[in-house]
Design brief:
Blueprint lengths: L2 H30 L1 H11 L8 H13 L2 H12 L6 H33 L9 E2 L2 E2 L3 H32 L1
Antiparallel strand pairs: 1-2
Length: 169
């Protein structure tokens, strides 16, 4: 099998990594701020009220993140052609996708930790989403910070993935 034959498989795997990351990530942010989902994300992603909250958070995470696999894969899969050998290429790219996920997670969790240090009732105002009042605005802002910085983590993950490809070549 040539490296080109691996491209669609690797693109699918990149989407799976990204989607699973999103589902797991949202379990963390749901723990921090359930209202981030019940007052905002569930409305944004049209999650049925009958859906259990944790399942809804996972669905939101999957839907918000799987497409990042297309972005990550579209950039890193061709760069991965630098890796010698078909087997080395395939398994090397699996490692690369893992590094992207780990990078995004570390940056998201770092942002969350910083948010716990700097976001408090003195530094945050009122928050309303879709006309829904948020009772714990501090937790809501902290979860939102983790969410936003995880996208930055994905971008930086593409860079760290590229570095890994260079090391694997």
């Amino acid at each position: 099998m040539t490296k080109l034959a691996f491209v669609p498989i690797l693109l699918l795997i990149a989407c799976l990594f990204a989607g699973i990351y999103g589902a797991v990530h949202n379990q963390i942010s749901y723990t921090v701020a359930p209202e981030y989902f019940t007052q905002f994300k569930f409305h944004q992603f049209h999650i049925a009220e009958s859906t259990p909250d944790r399942i809804g958070a996972a669905i939101v995470g999957w839907n918000a993140a799987w497409w990042m696999g297309l972005v990550v894969g579209s950039i890193l899969i061709p760069v991965g052609f630098l890796i010698r050998g078909n087997d080395n290429y395939f398994w090397g790219m699996i490692k690369v996708f893992g590094i992207v996920v780990i990078t995004a997670l570390v940056i998201g969790l770092t942002a969350l930790a910083i948010a716990f240090l700097v976001i408090n009732t003195d530094t945050i105002g009122e928050i309303s989403r879709y006309g829904n009042e948020v009772s714990d605005v501090v937790a809501f802002a902290r979860a939102g910070t983790m969410h936003n910085f995880s996208y930055l983590g994905g971008l930086i993950g593409i860079i760290t993935g590229g570095v890994l490809i260079f090391l694997l070549r």
